[in-house]
Amino acid sequence: xxxxxDGIWGQLLSLIFFxxxxxxxxxxxxxxxxxxxxxxxxxxxxxxLKAEKIVIKKISKNPDKKLKNRIKNFLEFFAISPVNLDPxxxxxxxxxxxxxxxxxxxxxxxxxxxxxxxxKRSNVMMGLSGAMTLYQLTKLVRHFVELIKKTKSINLAxxxxxxxxxxxxxxxxxxxxxxxxxxxWPVGDTVGAYVAANLIGKSKVKRVDEDxxxxxxxxxxxxxxxxxxxxxxxxxxxxxxxxxxICKKExxxxxxxxxxxxxxxxxxxxxxxEGIGVAIGGIGIxxxxxxxxxxxxxxxxxxxxxxxxxxxxxxxxxxxxxxSVPKVMGILDETIDRTxxxxxxxxxxxxxxxxxxxxxxxxxxxxKIIKKxxxxxxxxxxxxxxxxxxxx
Length: 392
Prior knowledge:
Helices cover 60% and strands 12% of the residues. The protein is an alpha/beta fold.
């Protein structure tokens, strides 16, 4: 039985239709997928433009065409990784490139926002970095969409389609992250710096370089040295280099790093875990400095991590992350108590210090911002639930 009848002509037409369908099937599929891909590419382009506007508005409430063009052009900025054919000396090469990149960012932001103070300029730098990442991601998606249009490759189309949910999820996080960092709000990744600032309390803080601060205090009958990026402007600091310099001059019993870490799907956000090693993300420059000195001096390395997703790390700090801080402090106390070796203990609050100051007074201001953002996120969540119920 078939749709064209049981006769010879019906069977012949069915056969012809089958071969035509087989020939055009892949092209029909490509066109269907392309329709969805084009919509996704347009959505990402809108988000990228919105992120760009957030940064521009932070620099000037009434931006002129020149400022808009300068920001647009800077979004194309790139850094080329050094050659890695010979791994010897690679860390120093990477460090040099990263330092040059930081200097270029600082110079550009100072040029477009000369009247801003250093903390606000740091926030603009971080916001610009978020907008730049989103812009590059958008360009990459658009590249593959246009390539699929030219080649009509169903394999390439399906590969991109499978990745799009994750790409869109990351793009939304980058947009919210750009807003948070531009405004100087604490994000998930600031939890390490937040713990360090709480630990500093009312102790005297010394700025050891342009981006890093150090405080010393007696805690639990031990001399501890606390290191974090200088806040409340958005910075990541140079903790590895600072740790290296201190270890060369003083007797160190242990190095403890506290940082945000990527969680697995199914794990609860804000889960705290402890281990050994150096918990510093990125390309590994700062981590390498600590590991090198620890090996030479045979210094134990302890680490405490607060788990969260990649999206939660760059968006305003969630309630579950904020509530994890007392547990981190409890584990930190246990780690200090079991340190039998003589010498000082270094505690490094790793991560972006956006919205997180360097002492108790500035932390009180951070708490207000965090709690305000938590209420705002809870209100948005309730609105989404109401909309979902309405459609059901």
